Write a sequence for this structure.
C-alpha cells in the first residue's frame, strides 16, 4: 500500500465537487478511494443511513455524466433520483449502511452515525485503500482516511455517497407512510417540520421515532 498522503486543500471558492482530491490520491498510487457520507443525522424519526462510493481511477472520462453530482442537500429530489441511477451505473463499488431509531436512542447519534459508515464501507465489493469522509473520521479505520470539512462540496466521491445515502433513506422512510399513516413521512422524511410536530401532538410517537431527540421525547407527546 502506498504511504499515507498529505492531501492539499482544494481551492477556496470551489462551487461544485470534483475529482481533484481523488486524482491526487490516484496519482500517489491509491486505487480504491472511497467517499463516505451520511443522511438523516438530524431527523426526528427513521434511520441514519450512510453511503460509500468508489469511482474507477479513470473516472475523469465520466465528467459529462457526473457533472451535476454535488452535495445532496443542494439538489432537487428529481435531480438526486436521476444522479442516483447515474452513480450506480458508473461507480466501481457502492455500499450502504443503516442504523435504526431504537439503536440511535441506545447509543447516541454520533456512535450510530459511525456505525452506519462502517457498515457502508464493509458493504463495498472492492476494499478501499483510502477513505474520504465528510467532517468525521472513523476510529480503527481499515485504511488511511481524511475527514474534510464541507467534504460533500469538495469531493465528488463524498458528494456521490451523500446522494446514495439520501435517496436510499428517503425512499425507505417514504414507504413507511403506508405502515404508519398520518405522520406525513412521505413529505418530511422524518425531519422536524410543523406538520411533523402537529402529527406528534395528535398521534404520539411511533416505532420509527427517536425518543431521545427533542421534542419527540417531550412529556406532552408521550402518553
Amino acid at each position: 500500500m502506498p504511504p499515507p498522503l498529505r492531501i492539499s486543500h482544494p481551492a477556496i471558492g470551489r462551487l461544485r465537487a470534483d475529482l481533484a482530491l481523488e486524482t491526487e490520491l490516484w496519482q500517489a498510487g491509491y486505487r480504491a478511494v472511497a467517499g463516505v457520507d451520511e443522511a438523516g443525522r438530524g431527523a426526528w424519526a427513521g434511520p441514519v443511513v450512510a453511503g460509500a462510493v468508489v469511482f474507477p481511477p479513470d473516472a475523469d472520462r465520466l465528467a459529462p455524466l457526473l457533472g451535476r453530482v454535488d452535495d445532496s442537500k443542494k439538489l432537487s429530489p428529481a435531480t438526486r433520483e436521476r444522479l442516483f441511477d447515474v452513480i450506480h451505473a458508473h461507480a466501481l463499488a457502492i455500499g450502504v449502511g443503516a442504523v435504526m431509531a431504537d439503536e440511535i436512542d441506545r447509543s447516541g447519534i454520533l456512535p450510530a452515525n459511525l456505525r452506519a459508515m462502517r457498515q457502508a464501507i464493509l458493504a463495498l465489493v472492492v476494499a478501499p485503500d483510502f477513505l474520504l469522509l465528510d467532517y468525521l473520521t472513523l476510529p480503527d479505520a481499515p485504511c488511511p482516511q481524511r475527514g474534510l470539512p464541507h467534504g460533500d462540496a469538495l469531493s465528488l466521491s463524498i458528494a456521490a455517497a451523500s446522494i446514495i445515502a439520501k435517496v436510499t433513506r428517503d425512499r425507505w422512510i417514504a414507504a413507511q407512510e403506508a405502515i404508519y399513516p398520518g405522520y406525513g413521512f412521505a413529505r418530511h422524511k422524518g425531519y422536524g417540520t410543523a406538520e411533523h410536530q402537529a402529527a406528534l401532538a395528535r398521534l404520539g410517537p411511533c416505532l420509527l421515532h427517536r425518543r431521545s431527540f427533542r421534542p419527540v421525547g417531550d412529556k406532552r407527546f408521550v402518553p
Observations:
- The chain is about 35% helix and 15% strand.
- Residues 104 and 163 are 22 Å apart (CA to CA).
- The chain has a mean pLDDT of 88.
- The domain at 20-174 is CATH 3.30.420.10 (Nucleotidyltransferase; domain 5).
